[in-house]
C-alpha cells in the first residue's frame, strides 16, 4: 500500500508539472501575433523545432539517468523528463493553434455540442444537461465540468477555455502515463513508450481531448490491472498481494465512466476478459485439487474493481438513472446509430506500409512472442484482442439496429500496438547488442538503435500537424465567440450572435439560463448558456428529452396559421416551451429551421430537413420580431 501511495503522490506531482508547463507555454504562444496555420508554414516550422528540442531533451534525460546514481539527481532527472514530455505535447498542439482561439475542428459538428456542454457547466456547477432545461446529464460531464469551472473561476468565456483546457488535460494525461510507466518498468523504457504513445494519441485522438486522455493512459493501466488480477497466482503470494493495483484499476475504470462512456464500456469489457481468462486458466491448471478456489480469486478481484468503479460512476450517472426509472424516454441507443465504412471492417495498422505500420508490426510480433512470458505483453495482447472482438460484436449488433461504435477505437488500437512496438524495439536492440558483445559490431548496436529511434520519432512527430490539417483548417475558418476568424478573413453569420444575445436579454429581462431558444443554429448555444428546445441530432440528445416527440411537436407548429394558435401550442407544450425563436428567412414570408432526423442504418446516418414557420405566427404584439443579419429573431414578450 505504501508503494501505491507513493505512486499517487508522484502522479499528483506530475499533473502539477504538466499544468505549469501548459499554462506558461500557452500564455507565451498567445502573446505573439502569428500567421494562420493554413496559409503559412511558419507555425509548422516552429512546431517541428519545438518537437525536435523536446525529443532531444528526452534522449538526454535518458542518458543522464543511466549514469546518475544519487537519489537527488535521479529525482531531478524525472522532473526534467516530465517537463520535456509535457512540453512536447503542448508544442505539438498549441503551436499549430497559436493564431486561433478555437480548438481542433473549431465550433463545427461534434465540437458544437462539446463547447455547448462546457458553456453550460461554466454557467453553473450543477450537473445539468447541455441542452435541455430541467434534465440531468446523460453524456458524462467529468471533463466538461472541470473545464467549465476553470472558465468560471477565471472569468473567461467557456468557448475560449476549450482550447487551453483540451491541451492542458491531454498534457496532464501524458505526464501521468509517464509516471505509471516508470513505476512499472525502467525509466528509460518509460520515456520511450510514453513518447511513442503520446505522439500517436496526439495524431489520431486529440480532436476528442477527453478520449485522448483515456487512450494514452490505457496501456499502462491495462498492465497494472493484469498484474493485479494475477497477483494471487503464486502459491507464496501474501493475502494482500496486488491490492493496490486492483483498487487503482477500479479507480481508473470509475473515472472513465465519468469521462467517456464508450471507452468505459470497452475498458470494462477488457478487464472482464482478463479476469475470465485467468479464471479459466486456473480452473484447468488446478482441476485435480481446489480448482474452484483458484478460479474464484481473479473473479473476486474483478468484483472489487467493479465495486470501486460503480461507486465513482454514481457521482455522475446516478441522477440520470434515478430520473430514467420514472420518466418517459425515447431515442434510446440513438447515440450508437452510426456505421461508417471504418466500422464495417477490421483494421490492421500493422499491415500498412507506413512508419506507424512498421512500429505496429514490431509490436504485433513482440506480443505473439512474449504474451505468455511478460506481464506487459500479456496485458497489451488482451487489449488488442479485445478491440477486435469488440469490433466483431459491433458488426453483429447491427442486426439489433445499433452498433458499438468500434471505429472510434482505432486510435486506441494503434496506441496499444505502438506501446508494444516500443518494447519490442528495445528488447530486440538489447538482444542484438548482447549477441554481438564479443564482436566488433556489438558496441555499436545500441547507439545505432537510438539514432534510428530518434529519427523515427522526429519523422512521425513533425507529420502530426499534417495529419491534423483538416481539423486545424476548420479551427481557423470557423467564426469564434468574438465574431472573428483565426485566419483574419471575413467572419460568417456567427458575427451577429453578440447582437442577438443582447437583444434577447434586453427583451426578456431574464438571465440566459432561464430562457429556452428554438434554433437550428446550434453554435449560438455553444457560445451562450441558453437552453435549447431541440438538440443538434438525436445522437447527442438526452433520451429523457424525447427528441422524436419534440421533432413531431415542431412539425405541428409548422401547420399553424395564427399567433393565437402558436401561443396556445406553446402554453400546452409538454416540455418547457421556447420563448425565443432564432430562425432564417425563407421564401414567401416564412421563417425556416433546418433540423435533422436519424436515418440509421443508412450512411450518412442523418437526414436534414427544413421546417417552415409562417411569418404570421409571430405577427402579434406578444412577439418582438427583429432582423439581425441573415437571422430572424422572434421573442415572446414577458407576460404575453
Radius of gyration: 27 Å
Distance between the termini: 65 Å
List SSEs in N-to-C order: HHHHHHHHHHHHHHHHHHEHEHHEEEEE
- How many separate domains make up the residues? 4
**What kind of sheet is the major sheet?**
7 strands, mixed
Give unreliable regions as ranges.
Answer: none
By DSSP, the count of extended strands is 7
Classify the secondary structure makeup into a structural class. alpha/beta
Describe this structure as you would to a colleague.
The chain is α/β, with parallel strands linked by helices. The chain has four domains: 250 residues, no CATH class; 122 residues; 106 residues, no CATH class; 144 residues, no CATH class. Helices cover 60% and strands 6% of the residues. The chain contains 21 helices and seven strands. Strands 1, 2, 3, 4, 5, 6 and 7 form a seven-stranded mixed sheet that branches. A hairpin with a 2-residue loop joins β6 and β7. It is globular. The chain starts with a helix and ends with a strand. The model has no long low-confidence stretch (mean pLDDT 93).
Summarize the structure.
By secondary structure, the protein is an alpha/beta fold.
Overview features:
6% strand, single chain, 4 domains, seven-stranded mixed β-sheet, 21 helices
Write the layout of secondary structure elements.
Layout (H helix, E strand, L loop, with lengths): L1 H29 L11 H26 L3 H24 L15 H14 L18 H13 L3 H27 L2 H18 L4 H21 L13 H17 L1 H25 L5 H36 L28 H16 L4 H22 L13 H26 L9 H18 L1 H4 L1 H9 L19 H12 L7 E4 L3 H5 L3 E2 L14 H11 L5 H9 L8 E6 L5 E8 L7 E8 L9 E6 L2 E6 L4
Parallel strand pairs: 1-2, 1-3
Antiparallel strand pairs: 3-4, 3-7, 4-5, 6-7
Helix pairs in contact: 1-3, 1-6, 2-3, 2-7, 2-15, 3-6, 3-7, 4-5, 5-6, 6-7, 6-8, 7-14, 8-9, 8-10, 8-13, 8-14, 9-10, 9-11, 10-11, 10-13, 12-13, 12-14, 13-14
